[in-house]
Design brief:
Blueprint (H helix, E strand, L loop, with lengths): L6 E5 L4 H12 L8 E3 L13 H6 L2 E4 L5 E3 L1 H11 L4 H4 L2 H15 L2 H4 L17 H26 L10 H20 L4 H18 L1 H6 L7 H25 L5 H19 L1
Parallel strand pairs: 1-2
Antiparallel strand pairs: 1-3, 3-4
Helix pairs in contact: 7-8, 7-9, 8-9, 8-12, 9-11
Length: 273
Amino acid sequence: MKTLENHMILFDGECPMCKAYTNAFVKTGMLGAGGRAAYQNGMDGVCPLIDKQRAVNEIALVNMENGEVTYGVKSIFKILTNACPVFAPLFAFNPFVWLTSKVYAFISYNRRVIIPAPVGSDSFAYQPTFKKNYRVAYLLFTWFFTGLILTSYTRLLAPAIPLGGAYREYMICGGQIIYQGIIVRIYQKRSFWSYLGNMMTISFAASLLLLIPLILDHWFHMQPLFFIFYFIAIAGLMFLEHIRRTKLLNLGWTMTITWALYRMILLGVILFL
């Protein structure tokens, strides 16, 4: 692939996703060996006129020869167009640019709740801007697909776990958002949006893991006991991940205890009522 010479991409050094895909640009030869750097290491040395806050929100690509800076999805398109010119018409198609920019923003503005970074006294001065509309969209997205997958998975648990109505899992998942939202609002208001985003990432990630037995069930018809034990194992991983993330948010044990209580109470209601 053709290398985009004399350019440097500035990525979030606290974001594993950002590290991975910018490293892929270098490994595949789309950028030179020194074509990436964490913006936490200093942006002024790369380009004194760079918009620092925008570079934190939208990944910046700097032309080291003339100081020109592109941001966000346009930075990625510039690298890909140079490597594969055949895609140039697609990347110049305005509806496609608009759609991909929205998807990029959706991920970028939620990246700290997708994969959280510890916040300490030595954190970089510039942090991703919080945008409520993208956080609400993330909560709705994860709520919908978590409910959708769980609705399909519960049929594998029958008759050990009674089947519910078409909207039961959506109501359970949505109920937890409301329940935990009220508690975190009372307990530590400033962590409201961060906690809910992290909590729904855990639920969404767990639901994606449930796709494995759902797919296997098409070829191998196993007993419900297997799916029950698999579900219990996933619930255990969720519990451990919830503990890890609440520690990063400095929320202690309160939110984990209420999170677990909600699930145990709902399980009792499903089994015995």
